Amino acid sequence: MEEYRAKNLLITGGCGFIGSNVVNYLIDKYQDIKIVNVDILDYCADRKNVEIEEGEKYKLYVCSITDKVKILNILIENKIDTVMHLAAQTHVDNSFGNSLIFTETNTMGTHVLLECCRIYGGIKRFIHMSTDEVYGEILEGKCSTSSLLNPTNPYAASKAGAEFIVNSYRISYGMPTIITRGNNVYGPRQYPEKLIPKFILHLLNNKKCPVHGEGKSRRNFIYVNDVARALDIIMTKGEIGEIYNIGTDCEKSVLDILDILIPALHKDPSLSWISFATDRLFNDKRYAIDSSNLRSLGWSELTSLEEGMSSTIDWYTSKRSSYSISYN
Questions:
Q1: Who's near 48: CB < 8 A, 6+ residues apart?
Q2: What pLDDT sits at residue 209?
Q3: This prediction's pTM
Q4: Is 132 one of the annotated active-site residues of the chain?
Q5: Into which CATH architecture does domain 8-186+222-246 fall?
Q6: Which residues, including other chains, have CB under 8 Å from residue 32's CB and lie 6 or more apart?
Q7: Which one of 39, 81, 133, 301 is the catalytic residue?
Q8: Is 135 designated active site?
């Protein structure tokens, strides 16, 4: 089967954590690709995350994916043939307090983007990035891509809703869609509301790390460069209509992560670096996914947790003055 090659690629959320790493990876790998980045530049995005200046190969539009007129014009003006939809509200804690913006961005934003692509008519690949959280809590075993969706928090529900809309456009309008569902991603450029960068910055500043509940909830972690590679392989080799889980077997609890970070940051392990906090209203104990169909395309994770943590620590150590965070 001949590999697909994008010429004019639209990436949504390309100034955010995963998006910027994907932009940097693809620009470095491909000489003949043009990337158009649509990002609203909210609190967790930074145009400086992208390492290339605007020019023939890269262009940034600062706008919301819910702006139908602007999105349609961007598709037409740039002759977009491929969409990689990464923009989303993703912080679960925030979704408990302000869930409507998650529905607006994640569900409605995806619908607007799809409708613009339908009207435009020139899309050959539409890759939608979802999350393993749509499966809900998995106490044993792993979820395959055919497992029942059972989201338990507003964030995951908004992503599941977006998936159903994506699939409906494939069935009703022949939109060439592919869906991905991924593990917890970590690495450089992640906004420090998420677990690993938050803990690193707390420890660098000799502050205790806030842990929800007992810290026993378990997640699988994947380094951001491996996610960028996975999305590239899915874009070039993936099958239209397929769903790909992007995951590892690197399953750790919150306390396991601290057990790695405390010595890595040369902190005295005999001291208490944990401040236990009230748990979320509902906190899934475990997620786990089967990535065999992605691996059949030739993908495997290349970065061990030890290597990924080391490079992530180095990043935040060098950038610590750039971040202002709450130590509650």
A1: none
A2: 95
A3: 0.94
A4: yes
A5: 3-Layer(aba) Sandwich (3.40)
A6: 5, 7
A7: 133
A8: no
